């Protein structure tokens, strides 16, 4: 299957993105790659829920994303999404009112780079972190707002531990993963195949990683999928996209495995 969408793109509305990460530049990329759907999923903490949890989320309000205009491009569907956060107390930083206005919502459970999201002590303890990732996945799936969650962004990829995450992931059993993914299937929440989660691994050996086992298990459970490069810099787009193509082939993803939003 050829990948025809990418719904995890960060534009300059995310403070961590490069200046060149403009919607227009992504449209040019989409044309070259033959994508028919792209989605901007900038970071959000909706102040209708509570004040921003830290400096990173300060100013990353839902209204700001929703009021930004979307360019048009012939033959390409352009969606306004967001990447929503779950704080360490289980508070989801997105109100129902705002969630309804986005075309789709990506939610993450694994931003271990923020101590307000995953405690610094937990981050340093692989065993506790593995448990916490599972518990937080479950919190999202069981959340009162779960019906607004389109997909879990970079599942089980602890961003603050990007150099040693296999050490964390091997502690999560297949059985536990199956329980969690079965719950996601039941709640109609898709799983994002995220290129950034594999970016530190050589392309040729991604299938040997613990991260790949996670996705294999999701596929076996019948999860629906969306693709996302999680690109913050158009310069690295080609490299990120090559990981998605490899994952699509290795996991034997077909149109039937895709979330309805991106079909
Ligand atoms: Zn993220
Ligand atoms: Zn992201």
Question: In terms of topology, how is this protein built?
Answer:
Elements: E1 5-9, H1 23-33, E2 37-44, H2 62-67, E3 77-84, H3 96-101, E4 106-108, H4 120-123, H5 126-142, E5 151-153, H6 165-169, H7 174-186, E6 190-194, H8 210-220, E7 225-228, H9 237-250
Parallel strand pairs: 1-2, 2-3, 3-4, 4-5, 5-6, 6-7
Helix pairs in contact: 5-7, 7-8
Bound molecules: zinc ion (2 copies).
Overview of the molecule:
The chain is α/β, with parallel strands linked by helices and 263 residues long. It has a single domain (5-262), classed as Alpha-Beta Barrel (TIM Barrel). It is 33% helix and 14% strand. The protein is built from nine helices and seven strands, in the order βαβαβαβααβααβαβα. It has a seven-stranded parallel β-sheet with strand order 1-2-3-4-5-6-7. Strand 1, helix 1 and strand 2 (37-44) form a beta-alpha-beta unit. The longest helix has 17 residues, at 126-142. The radius of gyration is 17 Å and the shape is globular. One zinc ion binds at residues 83, 108, 111, 153-154.
Terminal CA distance: 12 Å
Identify the CATH architecture.
Alpha-Beta Barrel
- CATH fold call: TIM Barrel
Q: Give, in order, the helices and strands.
A: EHEHEHEHHEHHEHEH
Number of helices: 9
| Strand order, sheet with most strands | 1-2-3-4-5-6-7
Small molecules (ligands, ions, cofactors) in the structure: zinc ion
The CATH fourth-level homologous superfamily: Metal-dependent hydrolases
Q: What class would the helix/strand composition place it in?
A: alpha/beta
Shape: globular
The low-pLDDT segments are: none
Helix content: 25-40%
How much of the sequence lies in strands comes to: 5-15%
How many distinct folded domains?
A: 1
């Amino acid at each position: 299957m050829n990948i025809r969408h990418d719904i995890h793109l960060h534009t300059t509305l995310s403070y961590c993105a490069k200046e060149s990460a403009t919607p227009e530049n992504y449209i040019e990329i989409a044309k070259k790659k033959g994508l028919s759907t792209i989605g901007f999923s900038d970071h959000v903490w909706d102040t209708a829920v509570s004040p921003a949890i830290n400096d990173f989320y300060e100013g990353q309000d839902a209204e700001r994303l929703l009021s930004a205009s979307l360019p048009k491009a012939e033959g390409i569907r352009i969606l306004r999404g967001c990447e929503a956060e779950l704080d360490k107390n289980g508070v989801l930083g997105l109100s129902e009112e705002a969630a309804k206005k986005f075309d789709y919502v990506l939610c993450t459970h694994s931003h271990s780079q923020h101590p307000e999201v995953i405690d610094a002590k937990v981050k340093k303890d692989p065993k506790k972190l593995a448990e916490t990732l599972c518990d937080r996945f479950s919190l999202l799936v069981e959340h009162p707002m779960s019906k607004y969650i389109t997909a879990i962004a970079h599942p089980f990829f602890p961003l603050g531990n990007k150099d040693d995450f296999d050490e964390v992931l091997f502690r999560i059993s297949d059985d536990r993963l199956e329980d969690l993914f079965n719950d996601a299937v039941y709640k109609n929440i898709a799983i994002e195949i995220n290129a950034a989660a594999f970016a530190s691994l050589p392309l040729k050996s991604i299938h040997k990683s613990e991260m790949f086992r996670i996705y294999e298990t999701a596929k076996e459970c019948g999860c629906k999928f969306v693709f996302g490069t999680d690109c913050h810099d158009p310069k690295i787009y080609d490299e990120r996209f090559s990981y998605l193509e490899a994952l699509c082939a290795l996991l034997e993803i077909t149109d039937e495995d895709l979330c309805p939003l991106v079909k």
